[in-house]
Automatic annotation (TrEMBL):
<dbReference type="InterPro" id="IPR052023">
    <property type="entry name" value="Histidine_kinase_KdpD"/>
</dbReference>
<keyword id="KW-0547">Nucleotide-binding</keyword>
<dbReference type="Pfam" id="PF00512">
    <property type="entry name" value="HisKA"/>
</dbReference>
<keyword id="KW-0418">Kinase</keyword>
<keyword id="KW-0597">Phosphoprotein</keyword>
<dbReference type="InterPro" id="IPR006016">
    <property type="entry name" value="UspA"/>
</dbReference>
<dbReference type="InterPro" id="IPR025201">
    <property type="entry name" value="KdpD_TM"/>
</dbReference>
<dbReference type="InterPro" id="IPR003852">
    <property type="entry name" value="Sig_transdc_His_kinase_KdpD_N"/>
</dbReference>
<dbReference type="InterPro" id="IPR036890">
    <property type="entry name" value="HATPase_C_sf"/>
</dbReference>
<dbReference type="InterPro" id="IPR014729">
    <property type="entry name" value="Rossmann-like_a/b/a_fold"/>
</dbReference>
<dbReference type="InterPro" id="IPR003661">
    <property type="entry name" value="HisK_dim/P_dom"/>
</dbReference>
<feature type="domain" description="Histidine kinase">
    <location>
        <begin position="627"/>
        <end position="840"/>
    </location>
</feature>
<dbReference type="InterPro" id="IPR027417">
    <property type="entry name" value="P-loop_NTPase"/>
</dbReference>
<dbReference type="InterPro" id="IPR038318">
    <property type="entry name" value="KdpD_sf"/>
</dbReference>
<dbReference type="Pfam" id="PF13493">
    <property type="entry name" value="DUF4118"/>
</dbReference>
<keyword id="KW-0812">Transmembrane</keyword>
<dbReference type="GO" id="GO:0016301">
    <property type="term" value="F:kinase activity"/>
</dbReference>
Length: 847
């Protein structure tokens, strides 16, 4: 028997999910359940540690990795204990390499398979599906994630939530992080906007989970009736011009119920011959999505039934339809979609909305003949010559062929004429054939009189069958042509969508597609200039229009083109080369509607591109203020405290104490100087004003100067230099700065007893200086992030700098024509590789 999983889902770190899990553990133990703690991480929080109380805590398993001992949950010990309920914290945790499973959720699955009930915790930012959204919002990547399906399989998911201001108060009181991290956390990850967004993500994710459970329950119990657990408004679209009115009406209905969903649906016939306009549907889809809704398309011949099936499938509570556009005479013979849908809606509220197109008919284009004029002329010739020849032949066989056989032969001739020329030539052949049969073959012959009633009936049946066959053949030909046209339109629109999606510049690609498809010489999208009022010569006024995009032969006004497709009152697609055929207008309208969508997307991209530098400036400003308020203040505070102690009246210091205090002042000021230098150099580098004096520089001498700059810290660094004398092209001061920054970073992350190493080598005209450490390393996907200003990987020490060392080092290296790239140290760690151009020694001799 598989055990039950209960997940405490935290909206953000610090909301108290571990505390809630421990509370639940105590409640279950008080009810007599055997409860143990498999793994709980308190993060040093006193309230959480106190909540453990007298719950049994199972021992952890120690793992040795990279000369460090880590503790993980002992799965074997938990299984051997065999408790009914096990508390396991941090579902998304990654186990130490060499553990039984790579992830803790895999450990928990083993416990569930053993029949145990597991209580666990996870934060919303660790869910795999929204990991990228969290990174976009907070700017912090989450390296530990858990598949959504693991959490969704839980029998119970409890959201642990807290108002953003309450979380910040907990942070300020030291209930979440230590005092040294509070300022950085409040100014970065724990901003009110970030916490609000995380809270909304958690609520939305959990709402989807609840919806899934509701749908599963309804399906398992075969429940088709609507349950009004959540308002959902469905609006039915026909592809007619009234669709925008219906969508806006439905959006107003949805807005009255906070959180209601808006769904727009179009029912397409199986044969693809519906009269809906592609242009109208494209514009209406955009409108529905702009109003916060979604667009759907379903297929079905029975439109009311398909519409009701869709509404019941999404558990809709309200259905919005337009009053029929059919005329009053048509309504007498059929009740229409609105009435039929209302009669079968059951508990779903149906709104029939009036609009400007009521009783104006379907407004479909006038049907053209299914066959060309040449085919119709050929049909008339076949009718005339065929009937004449058939009459002559049967006259020679009079007495040998009965009247019934004559009728069948004439009927075959009518079918042949229908196949060749369509309806009207076949009708002519049917009438002419009945006259010829009466005059030449129905007794008494050579008269229009018919002797027997049977012959009258036979001729009438012949005429009726001939007309019916003619109409059927013509209708089949018409349907074939319409289906071929619909297929061509669909293929064209499919190609249109593909070209727009693949193109780097969708708007020019789309205009070029419409120009090529319909053989125009040019296509121009014009936008009416702001402030251009009604003018009698608006179509030819170049000041009234702005060219948005153009391919081929360009125009500046609608009047200069050969065809114009209006998208709305302000936007027009103008085509040059030849007039637009009536049968092509619907597809071109769809192109025009899509062009407007592409235009708006292009405008949004341009606005986003313009806002990007401003956002970057704002981010840099915020980060700089944070650095000034914290990192620059720390050495100032240390120096001030030491100087204040030396100046304190009535306090006598020994010589050693005075030396130590002065050394502390000097160290703090040196650290402050380095921070300010880095800030100034970074600003000069970004402004392109950094002074640089490139010259041949000995890499060995520069390494020695960098080690001297590090002082006692640099004595343990292992240095491997080649035997030959190597010189590089660069500024020796800047090269030393880069090496010092890289070495300080390596020292900060190197474990005890494993100092960094410098290895210098030359090949292919370049000199590589590798700074190697054995620290925790950085995942390859984060290598680019470590070179961003004001970034400290892992945020492990807020007192070591403002996060400019690597960013400045790469900038200085590239300014000297070199590169600075990270690599993985074999066996674990990070290697930074500075590559500079080698000076050719042969060129240095006799310059």
């Amino acid at each position: 028997m598989v055990g039950q999983l209960r997940v405490h889902l935290g909206a953000a770190p610090g909301v108290g999910k571990t505390y809630k899990m421990l509370e639940e553990g105590h409640r279950r133990r008080e009810r007599g359940t055997d409860v143990v703690i498999g793994y709980v991480e308190t993060h040093g929080r006193e309230q959480t540690e106190a909540m453990i109380g007298d719950l049994e805590v199972l021992p952890r398993r120690a793992h040795r990795y990279r000369d460090t001992t880590f503790s993980e949950m002992d799965v074997d010990a938990v299984l051997a204990r065999g408790a009914e309920v096990v508390l396991v914290d941090e579902l998304a945790h990654t186990n130490v390499p060499g553990s039984r499973n790579a992830k803790r959720w895999q450990d928990i699955e083993e416990l569930l398979d053993a029949g145990m009930t597991v209580l666990t915790t996870v934060n919303v930012q660790h869910l795999e599906s929204i990991n990228d959204i969290v990174r976009q919002i907070t700017g912090v990547p989450q390296r530990e994630t858990v598949p959504d399906e693991v959490v969704r399989r839980a029998g119970t998911i409890e959201l642990v939530d807290m108002a953003p201001e309450a979380i910040r108060r907990r942070m300020a009181h030291g209930n979440i992080y230590g005092a040294e991290k509070i300022d950085a956390a409040l100014g970065n990850y724990f901003r009110v906007g970030n916490l609000t967004a995380l809270r909304e993500l958690a609520l939305l994710w959990l709402a989807d989970k609840v919806d899934d459970e509701l749908e599963s329950y309804r399906a398992a119990h075969d429940i088709s009736d609507t349950w009004e657990a959540r308002e959902r408004v469905v609006v039915a679209l026909t592809g007619g011009p009234e669709g925008e009115t219906l969508i806006r009406r439905a959006a107003r209905l949805a807005s009255r119920s906070r959180g209601a969903d808006l769904l727009a649906v179009h029912v397409a016939r199986n044969d693809g011959l519906s009269g809906g306009s592609h242009a109208h549907l494209a514009a209406q889809r955009t409108l529905a999505e702009d109003l916060g809704g979604t667009y759907h398309q379903v297929v079905g011949n029975d439109v009311p039934q398909a519409l009701l099936d869709f509404a019941r499938g999404v558990n809709a509570t309200e259905l919005v339809l337009g009053v029929s556009r059919r005329g009053r005479l048509q309504s007498l013979f059929s009740p229409g979609v609105g009435v039929t849908t209302t009669n079968g809606a059951g508990p779903i509220d149906v709104h029939l909305v009036t609009h400007a197109e009521v009783h104006r008919g379907r407004a479909l284009p006038k049907a053209e003949s299914a066959l060309s004029r040449n085919r119709r002329v050929a049909g008339l010739l076949v009718a005339a010559l065929g009937l004449a020849g058939l009459t002559l032949l049967l006259s020679q066989l009079r007495g040998q062929v009965s009247l019934g056989s004559d009728i069948l032969l004439y009927l075959a001739a009518v079918v042949i004429v229908a196949l060749v020329g369509g309806l009207w030539p076949a009708l002519f052949a049917a009438v002419a054939g009945s006259v010829l049969l009466n005059f030449y073959f129905a007794p008494p012959i050579h008269t229009v009189t018919i002797a027997t009633r049977e012959n009258v009936l036979a001729l009438l049946v012949f005429l009726a069958v001939a007309v019916a066959v003619s109409a059927t053949v013509d209708r089949a030909a018409r349907r074939t042509r319409e289906a071929a046209s619909a297929r061509a339109e669909a293929e064209t629109l499919s190609t249109l969508a593909g070209s727009v999606l693949r193109g780097a510049q969708p708007l020019p690609a789309l205009l070029d597609q419409v120009r090529e498809t319909f053989r125009f010489t040019g296509a121009t999208l014009l936008h009416r200039a702001p402030g251009s009022g009604p003018s009698p010569d608006l179509q030819h006024d170049p000041d009234a229009w702005q060219v948005v995009a153009s391919v081929g032969e360009a125009v500046t006004t609608p009047g200069q083109g050969d065809a114009e497709v209006l998208v709305d009152e302000e936007i027009s697609l103008v085509l040059s080369g030849h007039p637009l055929a009536a049968q092509d207008r619907r597809v071109v309208q769809a192109f025009a509607a899509q062009a407007v969508v592409a235009m708006r997307q292009q405008q949004l991209r341009e606005q986003a591109a313009a806002a990007g530098p401003l956002a970057e400036v704002d981010r840099m400003r915020t980060a700089l203020l944070s650095a000034v308020s914290h990192d620059l203040r720390t050495p100032l505070a240390s120096a001030k405290a030491a100087v204040g102690g030396l100046r304190a009246p009535g306090v006598e210091f020994s010589a050693d104490d005075r030396t130590e205090l002065l050394a502390s002042v000097e160290e703090s000021l040196d650290r402050l100087t380095r921070l300010v230098d880095n800030l100034l150099d970074m600003s000069r580098l970004q402004a392109g004003a950094l002074a640089m004096r490139p010259q041949p520089t000995s890499i060995a001498e520069t390494v020695a100067m960098a080690l001297d700059e590090l002082g006692p810290e640099g004595r343990d660094i292992e240095v491997r230099l080649p035997e030959e004398f190597l010189e590089v092209t660069g500024d020796p001061v800047l090269i030393e700065r880069v090496l010092v920054n890289l070495l300080r970073n390596a020292l900060r992350h190197s474990p005890e007893g494993s100092p960094p190493m410098i290895v210098v080598s030359a090949h292919a005209g370049e000199v590589e200086t590798r700074v190697i450490d054995r620290g925790p390393g950085i995942p390859a996907e984060l290598w680019d992030d470590v070179f961003l200003p004001f970034q400290r990987f892992g945020d492990r020490d807020n007192g070591t700098g403002v996060g400019l060392g690597l960013a400045l080092s790469r900038g200085l290296t590239e300014a000297m024509g070199g590169t600075l790239t990270p690599d993985t140290t074999p066996g674990g760690g990070l290697t930074m590789i500075m590559t500079l151009v080698e000076v050719d020694q042969d060129d240095q001799v006799n310059p």
